[in-house]
Write a structure and sequence with these properties.
Distance between the termini of chain A: 55 Å
Radius of gyration of chain B: 21 Å
Largest sheet of chain A: none
Number of strands of chain A: 0
Number of strands of chain B: 2
Number of helices of chain A: 3
Radius of gyration of chain A: 26 Å
Helix content of chain A: 55-70%
Shape of chain B: globular
Distance between the termini of chain B: 35 Å
Largest interface: A-B, 72 and 82 residues
Number of domains of chain A: 2
Number of helices of chain B: 13
Oligomer: heterodimer
Amino acid sequence: MAGIIDSYIPVAIFLAVGLLMPPMTMFLVKQLSPRSRAANKYTTYESGSVPTGTARIQFNVEYYLYAIAFVLFDIEVLFLYPWATVYKGHGITTVAVLEMLIFVLILLFGYLYLWKKEALTWVK
Amino acid sequence: MVESSIIAIPESLVPFFPFLRGILGLALIGAIFVGAMGAVWIERKLAGDIQRRYGPIRVGKFGLLQLVADAIKLFTKEDIIPRNADKLLFKNAPIFMMSSVFLMLVAIPVGAVFIDGVEYPLAVTEMDISVLYIEAMSAISIFGIFMMAYGSNNKYSLLGAFRNFARMVGYEVPLGISMIAVVVMTGSLNIVEISQAQGLHWNIFLQPLGAIVFFIALMADMGRLPFDQNESEEELVAGWVTEYSGMRFGLGFFAEYIHMILGSFLVALLFLGGWNVPTFISDHAVLGLIAPTGFLLLKTALVLCTIVMLRWAVPRYRIDQVVDLSWKRLLPLSLINLVWAVGLGLYLGA
């Protein structure tokens, strides 16, 4: 089995290629493509009418609530990853499974609370 | 990858193996691009068949050269950056998306060869945490989508990106939990080991609920119909890619397609038994070289065709329905499946 660093060297190579390939493609496109100067084509598309205002608008608070719920549950998922690899065959099976069940039950309580408070309902 | 045990290689060259693997693995990028072009063609052909029309037939035999024509078009279109766009975000978003799919590709095994009954997985790199790594890299692509939309400074794009964000945030959780249910069965985060451990007892039979949740969550994660609220052409023009044209659009589009192919690989590896074939085939001198990889690719192609055909069979959901489906249906189902998988894992392991 190779060392930990060894398995990430190909990752670095792929990252370098991934970062270099699109700019090279765009360079090629620049050589091949025609260019015309028409000022109107640089305007933002809004179904043909003249764009009004900016698109950097305030957005619905809904998204924020979902984001918080997401962070909550994603942390649960992250805790479960290491747990899933060690719970079996290390002589801690009973304790590990019980702990996980308690952990999930606590989260389920929070989940039901969110549901009851209608934080998971799309209001519109 | 051919390992050192087969051919005699001087000891002094061993430290260079990871580099060699990485450089040889770059061939995979070419292969996946060809695969993505093939997927585009298959999608258009299947779409035609399902809707009782021809699909591409004009350019070349069976319209196969249509792809070449499209590529020429993409390469010779002018690169337009809108005046109001945030140049930094607008230019770098496609790079971001491409890099994220390449980084996903690096950890996914695409098959295996059996030489004298010994198995050599065809993966660019094998890491202990590849499942976690793949999920992380897959989740990164949402930043690319948001950069595209926010950088465009276009209202349609931004609305599409918000919807995309609300959807992906909901589906990451069931996706992660159903992946953990697979990890629980094997006790390893290494996708190669998970695939090998399944043997001929595919995970889809052991935990059918998990497979369904995973498949739906993956479809949503990749933004395929019926989960493409970020693009919904009828309302948002083209959603998050409205301002993109030419090759810049092409890069983002290809990244999405490669993401779809890699997602199909994940389904095949995690739930459909990977490349495992009965031993009498893998012990065969010639079949052992071809059959496992071919089997995996066949399964991947079938998953891909299912995803493509679902696009034309199921109408798009509204955003509130999508969000409800993930938080109120898939999340509890994935937890039930996790408990089931833990019980089954203990029962089978004992």
